[in-house]
Every structure is written in structure tokens, then in C-alpha cells.
Write a structure and sequence with these properties.
By secondary structure, the protein is mainly alpha-helical. Helices cover 74% and strands 1% of the residues.
């Protein structure tokens, strides 16, 4: 076998080594989680419903980053920029053009896809920490760009924009928070199914081939440049939709809401949930939403230090995130069935 054939063979084996079932939960577990998400809002207060809505929104943003990093192996610290573009697209369309909130989501997705695809073009020359630094620069610059004077009429400048929260349609007897939660849940499920099918498709296999061995992927005929930029575009589009939903849920957008802190939080959520494991996106989102509150409850003066200790413990005990816990749970369940 020639050296080129060996490289191709290694690349092929790397792609096949990723089992399709590893990306999702089992059917029974998925249905149980869905049942909990459907029923839970009925028994909790509006504030808890709002937190659950934000959990789904951040879960979408973490899932988008998971497709980019876990799927194609590209690191990004700039997801907050795409989140901001999606949020402002929805806010401007709703408040200045009276566009229905539901219609703003696909528009924001298309805008962010174009933004991410175009950003991916120059990023092709970068990889590893250099790509992370380039996306870090994007995230750092975005809040300042949104404050520019010639954009102030549309974006509200430093003051931001207030977004009107929609009422339930057709006269449904439910609160605004509950309606928005179920609307977000439907969008989340649709994007989750799309993401799973994407990673199982030919394009998904190309992503994973590039992630595992870029030279082998190129030797196998994968258009590396196209699929790298496509991964950036898809990730940006999903993040933009998450930003749109976030703007509607919070009812406010402002440049300082989308700083590098948000980007780092999303990256942290991906790591805690398990890189490359899509269901872990919700677990990662729960970590970045609730753990800071827990840390503040333990010590208000040292909340940052407590959060750091909790994060260290999680990374030390489960370095592969929630995916590691899921694998251990499956193994224990398998042993119990045999016994």
C-alpha cells in the first residue's frame, strides 16, 4: 500500500470510528426528556418558565458551537458576535419594520449564515489557537461596532432597543412566557433534528473527516475549504437564531450584552456538555445558567472563586463532560440488564 493510500485509509477509519448513535440519546430517553420539557411549565411559575426558555436558547447556541468544534474541529471564541447579529436582526425587524417575530428567525439565520460563511473565508488560512484568536478578535470588536454613530438610528447605540414580547396567538389562554417557551421548544427540536441529520449526512462525514485528519480528508476528495466555511456558516446561522429567540425572551438588546464573556460561557458550556455530543448542549447550557447562581448563593463576595472551584471539580472529575456520565450510565444499565 502506498503512503497516500495509507493516509486515505487512516482518514476513512477515523470517520467510521464515530458511531451514529453516539451523537444522540436513545429513543426512550429522548421521549422521556421531551415529556418533561412539555409538562414542566404547567407546574412552575413564570420566572422558572423564563429560565427554562433561556436554557433552550443557550442550548441552541452551544449546539451550534458543537457542530463547529465537535463536528469539524474548528475552534471559535466568537460565537457571541453571531448571537448579537441574530438578536439585533430580530430587534430591528420587529421594532422598525413591524415584522412578525416568527418571520425574523429565518431572516436572522440567513443573515448570520452569510456572515459566518464570509468570515470563514479568511479564517481558512488559520487553525488551532490562531483561529481561536481571530474569532476572539471578532467577539471583542462586535459590541464596539454596534455602538457606531451611523448605526445608532437602527441599533439604539449604547442605549439598545426594547423588544416587544409577543402574545399567544389565536387567543390561547396562556401567558406570554409560556407561549414563548413552547415556541422556543418547537424551534429547538427542529434545529436539533436538523443538526443530527446533518452530522449523519455526507456533509457531516466530511466535517468529521476534516476534524480527524485534514490531509486524509483532502486525499479522499473532500473539498476542505468549502466544508470548513460551510461549518462556520451553519454554526453562525443556528447561533443567530438563538440570538433572535434571546432578544424576544429578554425583551431588550444592547451591545454590552454580547461581550466576550458570553462567547467564553458558550465555549465552557460545550466543554461541560461534552465536545461532539449534541444532547450535552442542554447540560452545558444548564451549567452556565445555574452554576453561577449557585456560586453566588454559597458566597456573594467570592462567587467568582466558588464558580472557579466548581468548574475545576467538574473538569477534573468528568474531563469529557456530560457525555462521560452518559456512557457510564449506559454501561451500568447494560450490566443490570444482564444480571
Amino acid at each position: 500500500m502506498s503512503a497516500a493510500e495509507e493516509v486515505v485509509a487512516e482518514g476513512h477509519q477515523a470517520v467510521e470510528a464515530v458511531p451514529k448513535r453516539a451523537m444522540t440519546l436513545g429513543t426512550g430517553t429522548s421521549l422521556a426528556v421531551l415529556a418533561v420539557l412539555l409538562v414542566a411549565p404547567v407546574f412552575v411559575k413564570n420566572f422558572i418558565i423564563f429560565q427554562m426558555t433561556m436554557l433552550l436558547i443557550y442550548g441552541l447556541a452551544v449546539l451550534a458551537l458543537n457542530i463547529l468544534t465537535g463536528g469539524s474541529g474548528q475552534f471559535s471564541l466568537g460565537q457571541s458576535a453571531f448571537y448579537a447579529v441574530g438578536a439585533y436582526t430580530t430587534a430591528v425587524l420587529m421594532e422598525h419594520f413591524n415584522v412578525n417575530y416568527a418571520l425574523t428567525l429565518p431572516i436572522a439565520g440567513v443573515v448570520c449564515f452569510a456572515f459566518g460563511f464570509l468570515f470563514g473565508q479568511p479564517a481558512l488560512r488559520l487553525s488551532g489557537v490562531y483561529l481561536a484568536l481571530a474569532t476572539f478578535a471578532l467577539a471583542t470588536a462586535m459590541p464596539q461596532l454596534l455602538k457606531l454613530n451611523f448605526l445608532e438610528h437602527w441599533t439604539g447605540g449604547v442605549q439598545g432597543l426594547v423588544v416587544t414580547k409577543p402574545d399567544a396567538p389565536f387567543g390561547l389562554p396562556i401567558s406570554q412566557d409560556m407561549w414563548l417557551y413552547y415556541f422556543t421548544l418547537v424551534v429547538t427540536i427542529a434545529i436539533y433534528i436538523f443538526s443530527v441529520n446533518l452530522l449523519r449526512s455526507r456533509s457531516g462525514r466530511a466535517f468529521m473527516a476534516i476534524r480527524d485528519n485534514e490531509i486524509a480528508a483532502s486525499a479522499m476528495g473532500v473539498d476542505v475549504a468549502l466544508y470548513k466555511t460551510l461549518a462556520f456558516g451553519v454554526s453562525a446561522a443556528i447561533t443567530g437564531i438563538a440570538g433572535s429567540l434571546g432578544a424576544i425572551a429578554v425583551q431588550f438588546v444592547a451591545p454590552d450584552s454580547y461581550t466576550i464573556t458570553l462567547a467564553i460561557s458558550l465555549f465552557l458550556g460545550m466543554v461541560v456538555g461534552g465536545v461532539g455530543w449534541l444532547p450535552g448542549s442542554i447540560v452545558g447550557a444548564a451549567f452556565i445558567i445555574f452554576v453561577p447562581n449557585i456560586a453566588e448563593g454559597i458566597s456573594k463576595g467570592l462567587s467568582g472563586a466558588v464558580f472557579g472551584v466548581l468548574l475545576f471539580l467538574v473538569i477534573y472529575l468528568v474531563p469529557h463532560g456530560a457525555r462521560q456520565i452518559a456512557i457510564v450510565g449506559q454501561q451500568l444499565a447494560g450490566k443490570l440488564r444482564k444480571n
